[in-house]
Structures are given as structure tokens and as C-alpha cells.
Amino acid sequence: MSNKPSVAIIIVSRNRKDLVTRSVRHFEDDSFPNKDILVVECGTEHANLTDFDTIYYTDNDFKGKCFGHNVGLNYLNMQKTYDYYLFCMNDVFVEEKTDFIQEMIDVMEDNPNLAMLSPTEKEALYPGAIPQNIGLRPVTTSDYLMLFIRGEVVQTHGFLNHTFKYCWGAIHEYSYKLYSDGWFLAYYDFLTYKHLGGTTYGNKATKTIPREQYIANAKQFAANYFVDNYGSDWDERFWQVATREHDIEHNTFAAHRKYWERG
Fold first, then answer.
1. What is the pLDDT of residue 1?
2. Which residue has the higher pLDDT, 1 or 179?
């Protein structure tokens, strides 16, 4: 075990004891030995907590999953740093493999400028997320569901901005910062995950706002944030930086800006 890189797995959840149990067991079943699994319970009621290694905080208004992942990261940073971090939702499960952590590490070690990778999703709606049988594909952004990030990157750049309460746009800003610093992001075709979906916003068990309201709030926040903080041409600037050294198929900066501003 001592010769293996260290991996921290941070799972965020809110009032979904069933999914937490399934998620932790999923990662425990992976053959990679040198891993620590932390569950972050974002305002979960005490009756829905599990016996797994957990950090809990009260969160009546639900500050969002970016906030929860940052709480988990800060908690771990007080104890040690890791070679790799896997930031995961509670409803995402890698398909067909029980050695996927080692496979992601191997890809990272073969690509020293790769900051972050995501498995793909067979039925995804997110641009570029469907597997293409190519292997590693540089992208502007990936869906914020299961992100495997190099420890050096986390120690320098942290994680997604916790002020993105509704998450939309947080990975766009993070991508811009990483590409500006000489890193790149990618989808990895040879690992796929199953995303259950619909398990937080609008789900009665989680006591969150309806999904329609969540979408409206997420659009409004992201549309305003980037113009206010990066200027009216932010999407063009982000795209130029990302494609300076990489051929990228989907410009999610422009596509998502259009979607957000549609209101």
C-alpha cells in the first residue's frame, strides 16, 4: 500500500442515506487500496446519517454541492494532502469495472499536464460526455458528477468556487484557471458511469427548492457572474485559452452562455 499514490474520495449528499450507502460500498469494492472515503452531509437530518466516515454541517437553505465539496476538502487538508482527489456526487457509479481508480491514476501518470479527468456517460446530454472510443479527449468542461483531479492542482487551485450555490458555471471558471496555468481537462472514454439523476433538487426527501426554480436560479447566477467578473467577452477569452494548445470539439463556454442568458 505504501508504494501506491494516495487518493481521497469526497462524496456529497443531502438526506439520501440510501445513496450514500450504495456509493461508499461502490468505492470500497474498487481494488485500489490506498484510499480514504469521506462523506459530506450537507444539512442532512440526523436520522439520515450513516456510520461511514462523515463530516456534517447544518445547512437549512442548502448552500450547494460546490460548498459541500469544499467543506470536505478543507477538512481533509487539516490532516494531510493526497496525490489525487475524486470529487463525486452520491448518485454516480462507474460501470463494469472494479479497478477504475488505478486506471484513472495510470492515465494521469501518462499525461503529466492533465489536471482533471472525468469518465463518460453513455446517455449523456452534456456536450462531449458520450464515449467516443477515442480514449483521452481534451474538453473545455465536463459534467460536474465525478471529477478526478491531480493533488498538485488541488493544492494550487483548490476546487470549484463555493460561491456557485447552484453549481452551473463553476467548472467553467475552474477550467479557465487551469488552462491559463498550462494544464488541460479531458473526458476518458474507456470508463463510463451511470448517473441516476433527480436525486437532490426537487426530491421531497432532500427538502430543496423545485428543480424548475433551481434551473432558473442557476441560469441567472451564471449569466451574471461571468459578465460581472470576466467581462462581456468572457466566453471568447476562455475558449482562446483552452484551445491555445489543444484541439477541442465542443465550445461549452459559448454554448452554455447562450443557454444561461436565454433566461
1. 45
2. 179
